[in-house]
Write a structure and sequence with these properties.
Number of helices of chain B: 14
Distance between the termini of chain A: 72 Å
Order of helices and strands of chain A: HHEHEHEHEEHEHEHEHEHEHEEH
Radius of gyration of chain A: 22 Å
Number of strands of chain A: 12
Helix content of chain B: over 70%
Strand order of the largest sheet of chain A: 2-1-3-4-5-11
Strand content of chain A: 15-25%
Strand content of chain B: under 5%
Largest sheet of chain A: 6 strands, parallel
Order of helices and strands of chain B: HHHHHHEHEEHHHHEHHH
Oligomer: heterodimer
Distance between the termini of chain B: 13 Å
Strand order of the largest sheet of chain B: 1-4
Number of helices of chain A: 12
Chain lengths: 326, 323
């Protein structure tokens, strides 16, 4: 009877394991990736990283993202839920909207699906049972920018957010404001109507208006390369070129050329390609050998300024899309 | 004479524009909002929206919507970028290709609407997704990017991105499109057909108006105008982006309605649309000159727009009731 019980228990455990972790034990099906909208050059570079690594490591994966960016807060949890219900071998997730996505990730990890977080979710991955995180800390990205501007003597910094309501992007402004405040500087936080997030003309006029209303502004930090170009034009239009230090998060070819010309002081690169590439590499090594890095793999920010801009431009020309700009 | 003016569709928009402009002139003292450069600023903003708003307005007078303009702007800028940057083509052939693409999207919208008799609101919303999806897919296949630099010649830079002081050449394009729109709507037989089609479709058809041709032509015109805006933005900012123009999808119908066009069709004027666009430019640029906390900006924008449309409606009713 005792023997029978333990056999039964062993069988139950075996079956239990078999059910709970089919992902590790068989090679069927693709790795599912829930990541950012490909209309953003940034995520185009992340995807290039996924693609290249998938080819090198011979991994089958599928990229899932929204195409319409107007309801991302509710669309992303839905996409994630659909991905989980397909019981993937492994799930690589950008945790852009923690309120809706974190409970789902906990569900997935509890069901035995290995999860790796990339890009966003740097403070959450340990709590939700994921094996790790690959990406930047948006707060640090802004903080570093604030430090650079404070050190350069900026007294009043403007943080311009073109996508109000996006918590990850907002963190960059929070970091920027914190660093400036620590150095005893003033800051102004500015947003724009949500319909104008991709209209460079509207951004130019918004920044121009703010510069006119607040003539003491002598530093601007933008959260993407497109508004960075709008900021440069606004500075030019109010006749204060050379007096206002402009820096940005993320890159574009235009922004890099502006750094080369000396119009733009710096661009913070979180190296999106690495986020995609390393995620697939880690997934491959985890699924096959059970290996993975311990903790937070940092891909940014790398500061691009006049000292290293030439090299970046060269890569941009020879390998389109890798630097997230063209 | 005043009473005659009050009866015109643009009277309300004109009153709303004046009040709003005075409001911002008084609320932003010493910031340069009323200066030449400040004026150039809101005109630049209004011009790009205005170019596409005029054909959209004509289309709305004829009783149809076009929500595909947003992705057409992005698609046309990406055609310039991919052609000049990836294939080293000279810019002018790409300009004509971009315009042709815009015209084709309009033709497809027009044919789909008149053949299926489905609401154009839905048909063109679908087109909006189809076009931006195709733009992104093709861009990624070709160059693995969804935004890319544009290489423009000096002549193209002059025609699409010349500046006098801080005023863009797009303002002249806006005036040109407005003039053409005005001639067509108010000084041509085709204009009467547009009003008739939107006012009473069956009566118009009975009277021998080629209503299908009217609608298809206007859809082509919106496609061309949207492509022109994509070219203007692309050359001006030296880069194409699949998401350029998405804000116009709803901003264009908004300024058209502020300009006195009835959502149900059959009533409106080009002067009104121009004033509605100018009003929108003043509000969305002037608000930043106030230095107010920008978290509230959309609230103010919404309230001012609601007030403008109400004022507009009130003036029009007043004018039409007082014989």
């Amino acid at each position: 009877m005792k023997l029978f019980k333990s056999v039964l228990a062993a069988a139950a455990v075996t079956i239990g394991l078999g059910v709970a972790s089919p992902a590790v034990s068989n090679d069927e099906g693709p790795i599912l990736v829930v990541s950012g909208p490909l209309s953003w050059p940034f995520f185009a570079a992340v995807k290039k990283g996924f693609d290249d690594a998938a080819e090198i490591f011979d991994v089958d994966y599928q990229y899932i993202a929204v195409t319409d960016t107007s309801n991302m807060t509710s669309d992303y949890p839905r996409l994630l839920q659909q991905a989980i219900s397909r019981e993937p071998r492994m799930l690589l997730v950008g945790e852009f909207f923690p309120d809706g996505m974190d409970p789902l990730i906990k569900e997935a990890t509890a069901a035995g699906i290995p999860v790796l977080i990339h890009n966003s979710g740097q403070t959450l991955w340990e709590g939700n049972g994921s094996i790790g995180f690959v990406g930047e800390d948006p707060y640090q990205m802004g903080y570093k920018a604030g430090q650079i501007q404070a050190d350069a003597g900026v007294t009043t910094g403007l943080c311009f957010n073109q996508v109000p309501g996006n918590p990850t992007v907002e963190e960059r402004c929070n970091g920027y404001v914190a660093a400036m405040k620590e150095a005893g500087k003033e800051t102004i936080y500015q947003t724009i109507g949500t319909g104008d997030a991709t209209n460079p003309q509207a951004m130019t006029q918004a920044i121009k208006g703010s510069l006119q209303a607040n003539p003491q502004i002598d530093g601007i930090y933008t959260l993407n390369a497109v508004p960075a170009m709008s900021a440069l034009r606004a500075v030019d239009e109010v006749g204060r070129k050379g007096e206002i230090m402009v820096g940005t998060a993320d890159l574009s070819n235009e922004a890099l050329l502006a750094i080369k010309n000396g119009d733009l002081a710096f661009a913070m690169d979180q190296q999106p390609y690495l986020q995609g590439f390393m995620s697939i590499q880690i997934a491959h090594q985890y699924l096959n050998y059970g290996l993975h890095p311990i903790g937070h793999v940092k891909t940014g920010p790398l500061v691009i300024d006049s000292s290293n801009v030439d090299e970046t431009l060269k890569v941009n020309k020879e390998h389109a899309g890798v630097r997230g700009a063209s | 004479m005043l009473r005659n003016f009050m009866k015109r569709p643009e009277a309300g928009a004109f009153a709303a524009f004046l009040i709003t402009y005075l409001f911002f002139a008084l609320a932003t003292p010493g910031t340069g909002f009323v200066s030449v450069n400040g004026t150039a600023g809101w005109l630049n903003l209004a011009a790009e929206l205005g170019i596409v708003a005029i054909p959209v307005g004509l289309l709305m007078i004829s009783g149809e919507f076009d929500l595909s303009i947003g992705s057409t702007v992005g698609a046309s800028s990406m055609i310039l970028a991919l052609g000049t940057n990836q294939y080293d083509m000279p810019i002018w052939p790409m300009v004509f290709l971009a315009l042709a693409a815009g015209g084709l999207i309009g033709l497809a919208n027009g044919l789909a609407v008149v053949k299926t008799k489905l609401p154009s609101f839905i048909v063109t919303l679908a087109t909006n997704f189809i076009v931006i999806g195709a733009t992104m897919g093709v861009s990624r296949l070709i160059a693995n990017v969804t935004s890319s630099s544009i290489v423009a010649s000096d002549s193209a830079k002059f025609v699409f991105a010349a500046r006098w002081g801080q005023a863009n050449i797009s303002i002249l394009w806006w005036l040109l499109v407005a003039y053409i729109g005005y001639r067509v709507l108010s000084r041509s037989v085709f204009g009467n057909w547009i009003y008739a089609t939107g006012g009473n479709l069956d009566a118009a058809r009975g009277a021998g108006v080629p209503v299908q041709r009217v609608k298809i032509s206007l859809f082509i015109a919106t496609g061309l105008a949207a492509a022109l805006v994509g070219i203007l933005q692309g050359v001006q900012w030296n880069s194409g982006n699949a998401t350029y123009g998405m804000g116009f999808v709803f901003q264009a119908p908004i300024v058209v309605v502020i300009g006195g066009v009835l959502l149900t069709g059959g009533y409106g004027s080009v002067t009104g649309i121009v004033l509605g666009t100018a009003l929108f430019g003043v509000i969305s640029s002037g608000i930043f000159y106030t230095g107010w906390n920008t978290d509230w900006i959309q609230l103010f924008l919404g309230l001012l727009l609601a007030a403008a449309v109400l004022a507009n409606n009130y003036v029009r009713r007043l004018a039409l009731s007082s014989k």
